[in-house]
Amino acid sequence: MVMDYLGQTGLDALKGADILKAAPEQYSSSVTYPDSTIANKLKGIAQVHLANLGTRIFYCDHGSFDSHSNQLGMHATLWKEMSEGIAAFFEDLQEHDAGDNVIMLVFSEFGRRTHDNGSGTDHGAAGAAFVFGNPVKGGQYSEYPSIKREDLQQGDPVPNTDFRGVYTNILEDWLGLDAQPIVQGTFEKPGFLQ
Predict the structure, then answer these.
(1) Rg (CA), the chain
(2) How many other C-beta atoms can be found within 10 angstroms of the C-beta atom of residue 53?
(3) Closest Cα partner for 104 from 123, 94, 89?
(4) In degrees to the nearest 10, what's the CA dihedral of 23, 61, 163, 68?
(5) DSSP calls for 116-145
(6) Where are the domains of the chain?
């Protein structure tokens, strides 16, 4: 029984790999992506998405932003690569009339401390999240946290938006799913989708 399951799983994985190999062959675009790791990942996602294979969620990472020194220079490069890659990705989707059916959630798994430790900043709370795409109502959907020393908790800004509310917004209003069993509760949605 277990061997049959593992065998079928392996065959399914190989079939999926064959399908994914075909996606770049079907893809053409006049958009020139920048030469960066994140842009290459986003181009790959565009290729698979535009092949209409039925995938609804894609994930990639960028960084590492885990710096404790030389943050200004390092973050300037990382954010430049990110913004250029995202711009090319959405330009590519627009060229293929697919700009209205994609949103992108960009988030950090950790925030940073507000005050320098002598050579940079340490891990902290209250990380940022951004949502991009034509269906997104632009704007800021939380209060900018205070960075005054007296308002910090253990040296960190105090989060004022629960990430589960952001997920609920996407799950319910974009994917059409019941968010409660996924996020394990009811959380206020920021309301950033049209």
Answers:
(1) 20
(2) 13
(3) 89
(4) -170
(5) --SSS--EES---EEEESTTB--S--SPPP
(6) 2-102
DSSP 156: B
- The residue length of the chain stands at 194
Tokens linked to 193: 């989708």
The structure tokens listed for 158 are: 């105090």
**Can you read off the two tokens belonging to residue 78?**
């990382």
106's enclosing H/E stretch is strand 104-107
pTM of this prediction exceeds 0.70: yes
Reference 85, options 51, 49, 45; nearest CA is 45
pLDDT value for 179: 97
How confident is the model over 152-163, as pLDDT tens digits? 888 888 888 899
Instruction: Please identify which residue in the block is written with the tokens 């309301």.
Output: 191
Residues paired with residue 106 on neighbouring β-strands, in sequence order: 130
